[in-house]
Amino acid sequence: MNLKISNQxxxxxxxIQFQAIRAQGAGxxxxxxxxxxxxxxxxxxxxxxPETYKESLKKINDRRITSDGIIIIKAQRFRSxxxxxxxxxDRLGALIRxxxxxxxxxxxxxxxxxxxxxxxxxxxxxxxxxxxxxxxxSANL
Length: 141
Known about the structure:
Structural class: alpha+beta
Number of strands: 5
Radius of gyration: 29 Å
Number of helices: 4
Order of helices and strands: EEEHEHEHH
Strand order of the largest sheet: 3-4-5
Shape: elongated
Distance between the termini: 92 Å
C-alpha cells in the first residue's frame, strides 16, 4: 500500500514509521491505559520521493520538520489508533502537496500616469481645504 501524493508520485508505507503513544489531555481511565495517539516519522532524505519534492520540503519553515530532515507528526485527535494513523497520513500528504506547489513569481507593476495625477490632485485639493480651516480674521470681513 502507498500514500498517494499526486498521479505520478506515491510514498510506500515502508518509508513511514509509526509509533503508538499515549494521548494527552482529558479522557479518564481510557487515556491512561490505552496508547491511541500516533507519532509518524518520515525521513525526507532516505525516502523514495523525487529530488524536487525533497528540496522543496527542506526549504519549508515548519516546526514539524527537524534540522535533520525528519518530519514528525503527532496525531491524537481521535480515540482509535487506526483513525489517528489515517489522520497522520493525511496530514503528511497535505504537507508534501503544499511543498510541491510552485508559486508564480510576482510581476512588479507601476501605477498609471493618470492614477498618479489623480492622487496628487486629490492631495492638493485636500491640503487647500485644510488650509482654509484656519482662524477667521475679522479685519478681512
